[in-house]
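URGENT: need a sanity check before tomorrow's submission.

F., can you look over the Radical SAM domain protein record below? I want to be sure the sequence and structure line up before it goes out.
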Amino acid sequence: MTVHGLPAPSADTALYQSIMEAGFTAFPERLANWRRFKAAQRGERLDYLPVKLDVEHVSRCNYRCTMCQVSDWPKMTRAADMTVGDFKSLLEQQIGVVEIKLQGMGEPLLAAESFFEMIRHARERHIWVRATTNGSLLHIKENYKGLVESDICEIQVSIDGARPETYEAIRRGGKFERVAENCRLLNAHAAQDGRERTRMWVVVQQGNLADLDLLPKAAAEMGFKRLTLSLDLTSWGQETWERNNEALDAHDLLPVEKAWALVEEGKRLGVEVTFWAIDSKYDWSDPAKLCPWPFERAYIASDMRVVPCCMIANPDVLDMGDARDLTGVWTGERMAEFRRAHLEGRIPEVCNSCYRDPPAP
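Structure tokens as predicted:
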């Protein structure tokens, strides 16, 4: 199917803009970097630093989801947690950053206190911050309050089903009723605190197609006002996971008519329903439709290694260098060659799952 014409998720524009402007005022060098970024053409070597980062402060999880590479890792752990010191040093170095996703392959609330400290530090530097959680730990030590009160800008909660049997078959290790109650706690506190910045996020796959009609109501009952259905499963840049997730993929199994019906049902319930799809955007044959990651952002793994993007999210698959010298990595030859391959239509094999009909190597 195509998602052309369906509503896509977006950040709170007013909040995003106000944070960005505050950052430009507080850090003139950030504004100068942003202007260079906006004026530049895509090239192999860039005269600006990344403007966005994905920062994975933990690479461990308490779930074994059927479509996630963490399920392959011993004890669902890849590496040690990122220290608060390394996080702060990274932001001191990266003067151009206006936006951070503070989460990677791990469950961020496994390191709740340091997680909240990182959010607060980034927000003090006027950086827009979002994160994704599986929601299972929100009730522990009232983490739902700590998350909202850290002043995070968007909280996405992954809930891949509207019924316990569906959810628990995909989110292995999770308990649907516990997560649903945690979401009610989170959304009630967010409303009370005046920071309603949550979003229910569903990875659509064959195992939850039967629940799609139930999702807007489930979102409303948990207190969400935004629901996004993601229509892509990534390969994580690995052949084994490409085969696994191709068997689970349901991208072509959701009729556009049903998608629009979900939008209308959401409106009736006061829930904004949107759709996300990667391979509807990236086209190797059109320079304007190349993946933007190599030209604007990077993924920093918990052990301070640089990965090209969140769809690989594992430096053991592709390691671009030491994030303690991210500027050197960003301006170095390895990243230049990675960009050159995209610009010349030689899409790296690890990137194929994000492109429509990638060329043969």
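My own read: The two ends are 26 Å apart (CA to CA). The mean pLDDT is 95. If you see anything odd, call me.
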